[in-house]
Amino acid sequence: MEKLNVICVDDQREVLSAVIQDLEPLSAWLNVEDCESADEALELMDELDANGEWITVLISDHVMPVMTGVELLTKVSKDSRYASTKKVLLTGQATHTDTITAINTAGVSHYFEKPWNAQELIECVRSLVTHFLFDQGIDYQAYLEHLDQQVVLERLR
């Protein structure tokens, strides 16, 4: 089985812990990592990529010191190693302009405002990972029971 990673980035430890806790039901088949800064996330992504692991989804807060979430997601979208990585902006402070930039420049797949609905976040990640597997041509059979069945059916047509 391939090593599938979801990376969550937020400079506020309590928010980051809440996201990780909400994604716990996915940990049976996904490795969920947490980072407290954009730089830490980029380092982790480089390390995972060097080990032949996949970064399936990157979830980032927007307002962070040094590099914003939109800047991080934009930088990742320009790196060919992560062309299929799905990106989610999870924030309470992005402006309308920030959101448009995230969608148009960073290729953000989903946007969640804080506070988010845990079940919606789980279903979003499940769907995005399913799309990722098909986009990359990874054998999805080992993960089939965990995947978004609607997406699987659509992709198999």
From TrEMBL:
Gene3D superfamilies referenced in this protein's UniProt entry, alphabetically: 3.40.50.2300
Domain Response regulatory: 5-129
4-aspartylphosphate modifications at: D61
Keyword set, alphabetical order: Phosphoprotein
Pfam families: Response_reg
PANTHER family per the UniProt record, alphabetical: RESPONSE REGULATORY DOMAIN-CONTAINING PROTEIN, STRESS RESPONSE REGULATOR PROTEIN 1
Protein name per the record: Hydrogenase transcriptional regulatory protein hupR1
Lineage of producing organism: Bacteria, Pseudomonadati, Pseudomonadota, Gammaproteobacteria, Vibrionales
